[in-house]
Amino acid sequence: MWRWVRESMKTLHLYLLRQVMATLVVTVSVFAFVLLLGNVLKDVLDLLASPRTTAGLLFQALALLIPFVLSFALPIGMLTASLLTFGRLSADQELTAIRAGGISLASAIVPVVALSLVLCGVCFWFIGDLGPRSRVAFKELKDSVLRSQETLSLGEGRYLEFGSVTLYARKVDGDLLRDVRIFAFTNGVCYLDLFAPEAELRRDSNRFPTALSLRNFQGLVLMAGGWQGISAEERIEPFANFRSAKLDPPKLSEMSMRQLLDERTKRRAEGLKDVTPIEVQIHRQAAFSFACLGFTLVGIPLGIRAHRRETNIGVAMALLLLLLYYSFIIVAQSLDTKPNWYPQYLLWIPNLLFQGAGVYLIRRADGRA
Q1: Quick one: which of 15, 17, 87, 171 has the fewest CB in 10 Å?
Q2: Whole-number Cα distances in Å, 271 to 34, 186, 263, 281
Q3: Measured between alpha carbons, how far is residue 13 from residues 21, 26, 159 in Å?
Q4: Average predicted confidence (pLDDT) for the chain
Q5: DSSP 221-263
Q6: pLDDT tens, 242-282?
Q7: What is the pLDDT of residue 208?
C-alpha cells in the first residue's frame, strides 16, 4: 500500500515538474528576448552604427548581454510559469483529482518549490558574479570599437556613454552639435549637468575627439554645499573620459558581490562610516536572488484561483505582481543616500510579503487556514 502511494507521489511530482519546466523554458525565452531587445535598442545601436562592427563582434556583444538579461528573465519566467501551469491544471480539474486522491497541494508542489530554490542559486550566480562581469566586458568591447573609429559617430536624439561622461545631442551636423546635454559621473553619482544650444567637436591629428567646445552653456555642478548654477559663453569640456573602460572603476550597480564586499571593506578602512550605497547594492543582489521562491509560492495559489487556461490572463497577473515587487525595489534604491531609513533592509520586504502571502494562500487552498 505505502509502496503504491510512494510511486503515485513520484509520478505526480515528475508530472508537475515537467509541466512547470516546459512552461518555464518558454516564458524565460520570451522574456529574455524582450529584455535583450531592449538592451539592443539602448546599447548595441552604437555598435551597429560603426563600420568596424562585424557579425562576429555583434554576436559577441549579444552573448555578453545574455547573463545580465537572464538574471531578470529567470524570476519573471518562474512567476509566469507558476501562474500558467497551475491555472491550466485548475481549469482542467486535474488539481481536483489530485485532492480526491488524498494528496494535499502543499505536498504536491514540493518539487516545484525545490526547482525555485535551485533557480535562486542560479540567479545569485548571474546577479552577483556572471552578470556584472559580462556587463563590464560588454562596455569594454563597445568602448574599444568606438575608440578604433577614425571619426566619432554620434547618433541624433540618443544618449551615448563614454567612460564616466554621458552625451546627448538633439541634432548632429558633422562636428557641429545642437541642443547638447552632458552628464558627468563619479562613483555612479552625477556631479555635472550641462546644457548648450550649440557645441563643436575638437579632434586631434588622428581625427579622434579630444574636447567639446560648448557655446553659451548653462548647467549645475555638485559642490560641498549642494548644487551650484554655472554659465559662460564658452567652455571646453575635454574628452579624457574616452579612454578605455578598463581604466574607469565600475559603478556600484555594475560590481559583482565580491567587488562590493571588497569596496565596503576598503571604504571602512579609509574611515568612511556611511557605506549605505554599497550595502544597498549588496542586499539588492542577495534579495533579488530569492525572488524566484517568493514568485513561485505566490504564483501557484493565484494561478489556481484564476482557474483559467488563457495565457494572456496569466501574463497580465504576472506583470501586475512584478510592478508591485519592483516598486519596493525602486523605493529602497532611491533611499540609498538616507542611511536613517535603512534602505538595504527595505529591499527584503517584497520577498517576505510574497513568501508569506504565498504560504498563507497555499494553506487556504488546502483548507487548513
Answers
A1: 171
A2: 44, 19, 13, 20
A3: 12, 20, 50
A4: 81
A5: EEETTEEEEEEEEEEEEE-GGGS-GGGSPPPGGG--HHHHHHH
A6: 444 444 567 778 888 888 888 888 888 887 777 888 888 89
A7: 65
> Cα-flanking dihedrals φ and ψ of residue 213, to 5°?
-90, 110
**Residue 151 has what DSSP assignment?**
S
Which stretches within 92-130 are classed as H helix? 94-100, 105-108, 110-125
User: What is the length of the chain?
Assistant: 369
The grid coordinates listed for 62 are: 549579444
Q: Which residues contact 104 (CB under 8 A, 6 or more apart)?
A: 366
The sign of the torsion formed by the CA atoms of 276, 282, 284, 287 equals negative
Using pLDDT thresholds of 50, 70 and 90, give the confidence band for residue 314. Answer: low
As to burial, measured by CB atoms within 10 angstroms (0-12 exposed, 13-18 middle, 19+ buried), residue 119 is: buried
Please give the backbone phi and psi of residue 268, each rounded to the nearest 5 degrees, phi first: -65, -35
User: Could you tell me what percentage of the chain is helix, strand and coil, using 3-state DSSP and rounding each to the nearest 5?
Assistant: 65, 20, 20
Lateral strand order in the sheet of 159-162: 159-162, 165-173, 176-186, 189-203, 209-223, 226-238
